Task: structure prediction
Amino acid sequence: MHRRDFLAHSAGIGLGAVFLPHAEALLMNAHQEPFAPSNHVVLEPIRTDGLALISYLLGDKKSGKAVVIDPRRDVDVFVNLAQKHGLTITHALETHIHADFVSGSRELAARTGTAQVHASVEGGAQYGFPVQPLRHGDKIDLGHVVLSVLHTPGHTPEHISFLAVEKTDPDRPFALFTGDFLFVNSVGRPDLLGVEQTSELSQILFRTLQTAFAKLPDAIPIFPAHGAGSPCGSQIGDSDSTLGQERRSNPALQFKEEAAFIEWLLASQPPVPYYWPRMKKINAAGPEVLGGLPDVPAFSPKEFQKLIAANGSKGVQFVDNRHMLAFGGGHVAGALNIGPKADLSIWAGWMLDPERPIALVLAKDSDLPEVLAWFIRVGYTKFAGMLKGGMDAWVGDGLPIAMVPQLSVHDLKAALPSSDKQVVDVRQPVEWDMGHLPGAQYIFLPELEKKLDRLDRKKPVVVYCASGFRSSIAASLLQRHGFTVMNVPGSFKAWTAAGFPVEKPAQPGRGTDTERR
Result:
């Protein structure tokens, strides 16, 4: 049976398109070593912290054309990089319909006036906005550089990868852009489209891993869409890698039996963030073109006090973006402390309602553009205002402040075991399984608000995570609900650095299961 017939028979959502006859010639060069691209080629990775996203600018100096692969929503970085190299962005390419961030392809097309959005229509993918359709075997011609489309389903039905060559040596590819299909040390998770499709996508992912790149040479560098820290796969690595290195060391590529692969794959995944289904809908329908960052009015302390008085189930959401220690030392009561890191993108997605406007307190007014970029990357564009002058202005106007005591790991160790304190771990399930503080209770941070009844309101709550960033979110949330609470700066990292003992559960659970004892 021909490979295409076999694959088409084995799955019903497009796996049969992994190999087409006219693509075979390009892939029949496993015995050759690829080479580094010539000086005519520009290849720049653009990393987005927090989301652990890696976008790519690939340009051809001879023609002056460039593509951007999997762009984020704040697109100035791509426009400026293209200008630096004297390139015109002609294509915005998507490897798939993303679930973890709002795509910047439409924004990039609007900003440049020259780029067209190109997206896969394999696996029945449909869009609510105009795209240039991409199918397996299609080619994107930049002049001297050519990208070939490879259908690589499994993470999603429509997922594609891009193989880059130079026309002067077309049988020796210099880059393989693998999107969310193949990562360093990991593969894309198949459980984002719901339980009913997880089993089928897991089977397709296994078969695609066995076949899609089978005839490509070991030495070709891979360029995935995510690095370490992304929940798009389990234990994603962050180093440069080649296809051969992944064949030798990537756990997902060591399985010969489908059932064993699927059991390992589904057991290892972290919980699916709540906001991911919303991201997929936005990206399939077509993200709103913003044309820049949202406007955020600045209010005096007394004006801001009136603004946040509307805080509630239907009012504004109130976020203090300062460091945990600054927040603990003094903040406006009712604020949720999501600190000054790009991780805000993920935790805003987990903790906030995109339909309710956000009021902000910042460390410095000048931090606003960076903070807004973190928000818009996950679809938060509604802002009620910011506190002009920050907490200095608030305190200077004689307005009341609240505090969250910060408990060092040394003081916590001295207080344990304790019958008058409850210690709560709010990390990922896999972090708990790898070791936790003796006597701690586990509640996954995004589930904390709906599990408040597990806590004793008569006892102070001591909250920790890995570093204190997430536990400060938890502490601010608990304080807002009337608990007496203390945060542990440095948290588990500081605890282990001090040489204090940890416990491990006898039987770790599945990564997606957030119930732990």
